[in-house]
Amino acid sequence: MRLGLFQPDIPQNLGAAIRLAACLGVPLDVIEPCGFPLDDRSIRRAAMDYAARAEVARHASWERFLSVKPGRLVLFTTRGATPLHDFAFVPDDVLLFGRESAGVPDEVHDAADARVIIPLAPGARSLNVVTAATLALGEALRQIRAFPTLERQD
Question: Which strand (E) or helix (H) includes residue 115?
């Protein structure tokens, strides 16, 4: 299971995604270009000390990412067809989330092996990208029984 961000716009969201990936033991793919310098202080602030624990792969372009993607590409989109709770995840899925400002272009939509939507209450437009990633990753890890093992704290 992997988490992917397509050309993120907001450094704090990338930082939070790095922290999420580190805490759940899931690799993170960042597909560039980003809407900010990747050495931005805002990323470090949001990622806190988890950046060193995270497995982050940077891809210079969509084409480069496609050339190395390890499994099925599951795109989360407001134009999705399958509700999150009806989708069956597999261990080598890449959960891909689009830009905060614009989602993904049609070529990315067309390349997806599956398109998933997170159902929202009537009138709600969208979730924050990292909130959506957390919800989706939680469901995917639950389905494949891949949450990190709890360590006993005595």
Answer: strand 114-117
**In terms of DSSP bridges, do strands 2-6 and 56-59 run parallel, antiparallel, or are they unpaired?**
unpaired
List, for residues 26-46, the tens digit of each pLDDT value.
Answer: 999 999 999 888 776 667 666
**Both tokens of residue 95?**
């959960």
C-alpha distance from residue 143 to each of 42, 58, 74, 113, 125 (Å): 33, 27, 15, 18, 26
Superfamily of structural domain 2-144:
SPOUT methyltransferase, trefoil knot domain (3.40.1280.10)
Instruction: Express each pLDDT in 120-133 by its tens digit.
Output: 999 998 899 999 99
55 CA to centre of own chain: 13
Residue (of 43, 37, 41, 35) closest to 14 by Cα position: 43
Residue spans of alpha helices (H) in 25-147:
41-47, 62-68, 106-111, 129-144
DSSP H/E element including 13: helix 11-24
- Centre a 10 Å sphere on the Cβ of residue 24 and count the other Cβ atoms it contains: 16
Give the global pTM: 0.92
N residues, the chain: 154
